[in-house]
Design a protein that fits this description.
Elements: H1 2-33, E1 36-48, E2 51-62, H2 65-85, E3 93-95, E4 99-108, E5 114-131, H3 134-143, E6 153-156, E7 160-162, H4 166-191, E8 196-204, E9 208-211, E10 230-243
Antiparallel strand pairs: 1-10, 2-5, 2-6, 2-7, 3-5, 4-5, 8-10, 9-10
Amino acid sequence: MKSSSIIVSIIVGVVVLLTAWILGNAYRYKFKSTQTITVNGNAKKDFESDLVKWNATFSRKNFELSAASAQLATDRDLVRDFLVQQGIKVDEIRFEAVNIAKDFEYHTDGKGNGYNTFSGYTLSQTVSVESKDLNKVDNASREISTLISKGIELSSSTPNYYYSKLEDLKLELISQASKNAHQRADNIAKESNAGLGSLVKADLGIFQITGQNDNEEYSSGGAFNTTSRKKTANITVRASFLSN
């Protein structure tokens, strides 16, 4: 009977030790398997815009609506002819709808009472140009002020520059940033005498487009520069890899 108790105690002891060993190894395996290396990969590329959008607005004012309309039509022809002379294609030129405003002037009489008097109609129209010939549009935007000497009341905006293959560029940079992240993680693993395992998580950062050689700050929502013809695209990838 006594020997049976001893045997049972030995068996229980062995089971306890075996269970502790299994749990200990399971914990160590779990701990080891959850070790990760997290890095930020980066990629950037300089590129030049291949599309420009630009607009200018001209206007006429007259007491007679028909007279103002006729004057604006003459100005419209002059603007179109000027742009064509600058080498811009007719199908790249677009005239927006005419805006009509009824103007009044405020007066006060000798008793301090205020009143308005009709001062005429102001008609305005915007011409916009969209082209892949950046040089011609750049030149036209600078030279169009010469039409002022012909009596046209005109204001010109700054050209905006875009890139038609932006999605392809973005995919290229994501690939480069991902490779950069893997390389950084691999270097860290080697310095730590560890091996680099599989990717467990990756988060894409904000896609930023800034002007080249500009002290332009990145935006938390993503910068998208349109005023610079030459730009720099930048993207980051935050990646986590298993370490073994």
